[in-house]
Design goal:
alpha/beta, Rossmann fold, 60s Ribosomal Protein L30, Chain: A, 22 strands, 33% helix
Length: 524
């Protein structure tokens, strides 16, 4: 067997690979050069370069595994690799400590003006008064996202006598309390923190999470640090906030486009910028290299990988029955996570019908992925789903019953949060996923992609028309409607399929309609 290492990785990782295969190290290959030679290799290891495109994967006739010596896999076409049956692995934990330490280094640097003072002194000027800083002891640190890195930052900040508050809807209250931190809403975190640091991944949910509106909530003395992903913080809004003195300063290690030599943040003296150094320590580079090399070696030897990013291998006899229900589990998880409110505490997954006779680990992983993928820095699959759930302190209970009244098979996910319980059930009919239960209401919604409005209301004449008119006035088309009710003129649920997302301002207007209790936009 042959392994191509197409980027620079630590020698320790190469030595692990040499124990199972012939290893060629060829860093700096062009896309064409990689395309020309990939056909003779059983495994490929990269870092951020080169881009492992669909063409390269298709040309890799012998490829069994692709390893990314780092966390993100943005430079690998996961969809094509999965279709080809190629395992993609990464190293989500290898740079945890280095990223956490870099976060604290930036926080101290921005608090004490260290880079600016260093530059001035090297330029021949002795200035002290201009660079008076602030202590971090007894200050409040707000952490957005309490995954691996966020947790390590919290532990270290508490050791530095900081008060730590956390916003992360998908972590248990007990886990946060055991760290010595406190759970708060995002708005409360923004308003009360002296320092804010971000540790969530970049998704549709988190892109632009911190924009002009959020930055306006910060104290004028507050600092914001981003060592997570570019795009989570609106760069122009951050630049304006610092330049206009609305916040004290910022420190940034990641950017929307990299290399970021012409990024607007670099031009501001009160924003410390580093060239994506979060994982740039000797220890981290060794860690990610060895972690990926061990997994590549395992796959080549026919063993499972610890951090497989894409779909795991499922026995054929189980796959034929459960494969259609993977989408059902995912859609049910997506819906329930978006309509539930409050801090998540417990997840109960119920399997009814024939599927209860099978190993449902794949379906459980699909549910957990739907719940935490939008905010997790890790890719969730069968191998790591339980680990990720446990790492966030989530209690996940599975219930199985072959008996069922309404359908042949059904998957129900019930979330218990600080605000109560939310339940959504789904099934498979005519080859399509249907949402058939929302709390106490039986409905029938074909769960295609797109936007959906879920609204609890009082069943009374004229209300549905008023809701439809309020949506139509902003030129948003309603493609479908389902209404479930417990009794005439009692509590009811309306589910509207929308061709476009409803603007937030208009969603707020729905809440002003008498007897409309809530209106939640869901994206599938």
């Amino acid at each position: 067997m042959k392994v191509l290492v197409a980027d620079k990785i630590a020698q320790e990782g190469i030595e692990v690979l040499q124990g199972v295969a012939e290893v060629d190290v060829k860093a700096g290959l062009s896309q064409k050069e990689l395309l020309d030679i990939i056909g003779s290799y059983d495994a490929l290891v990269v870092r951020s370069q080169p881009k492992v495109t669909a063409d390269i994967i298709e040309a890799g006739a012998r490829l069994q595994v692709i390893g990314r010596a780092g966390v993100g896999v943005d430079n690998i076409d996961i969809k094509t690799a999965t279709r080809r049956g190629i395992v993609v692995v990464n190293a989500p934990a290898g740079n945890t400590i280095s990223t956490a330490e870099h976060t604290l280094a930036l926080m101290m640097s921005v608090a004490r003006n260290i880079p600016q003072a260093c530059s001035i002194l090297k330029g021949g000027e002795w200035k002290r008064q201009e660079y008076t800083g602030t202590e971090i002891s007894n200050k409040t640190l707000g952490i957005i996202g309490l995954g691996r890195v966020g947790s390590e930052v919290a532990r270290r900040a508490i050791g530095l006598e900081m008060k730590v508050i956390v916003h992360d809807p998908f972590v248990s209250k007990d886990y946060v309390q055991n760290l010595g931190a406190e759970l708060v809403s995002l708005d409360d975190l923004l308003k009360t923190s002296d320092f804010i640091t971000i540790h969530t991944t970049l998704t549709n949910t988190t892109e632009g999470l911190i924009g002009q509106k959020q930055l306006a909530m910060l104290k004028p003395s507050a600092y914001i640090i981003n060592v997570a992903r570019g795009g989570i913080v609106d760069e122009q809004a951050l630049y304006d906030a610092v330049e206009q003195g609305k916040i004290a300063g910022a420190a940034v290690d990641v950017y929307t486009q990299e290399p970021a030599t012409d990024n607007i943040l670099i031009s501001c003296d009160r924003i410390i910028t580093t060239p994506h150094l979060g994982a740039s320590t000797n220890e981290a580079q060794v860690g990610v290299a060895v972690t990926v090399a061990e997994q590549v070696s395992s796959v080549l030897r026919g063993m499972p990988a610890k951090y497989a990013v894409n779909a795991p291998i499922i026995p054929a006899e189980t796959l034929s029955v459960l494969m259609p229900f993977i989408d059902v589990a995912a859609k049910v998880g997506e819906v329930v996570s978006q309509i539930a409110e409050g801090q998540l505490d417990k997840v109960v997954i119920s399997y009814n019908g024939e599927i209860a006779n099978y190993d449902t680990a794949t379906l459980k992983a699909s549910v957990i992925k739907a719940l935490v993928d939008p905010i997790s820095e890790e890719h969730v699959n069968l191998i790591n789903a339980n680990v990720i759930a446990q790492g966030r302190g989530l209690k996940v209970l599975e219930l199985k019953d072959v008996n069922i009244e309404n359908y042949v098979n059904m998957i129900t996910v019930e979330l218990t949060t600080s605000d109560g319980t939310t339940k959504v059930g789904g099934t498979l009919m005519r080859g399509e996923t249907h949402i058939v239960l929302v709390n106490n209401y039986w409905v029938d919604v074909v769960a295609t992609g797109g936007y959906w409005m879920f609204s609890d209301h009082l069943d009374r004449p004229g209300l549905i028309g008023t809701v439809a008119s309020t949506i139509g006035v902003v030129d948003v088309n309603i493609s479908s409607m389902q209404v479930g009710r417990l009794k005439p003129r009692g509590e009811a649920l309306m589910i509207l399929g929308l061709d476009e997302p409803l603007p937030e301002k208009q969603r707020q207007k729905l809440l002003t309609i008498p007897d409309v209790y809530n209106a939640k936009l869901v994206k599938l």
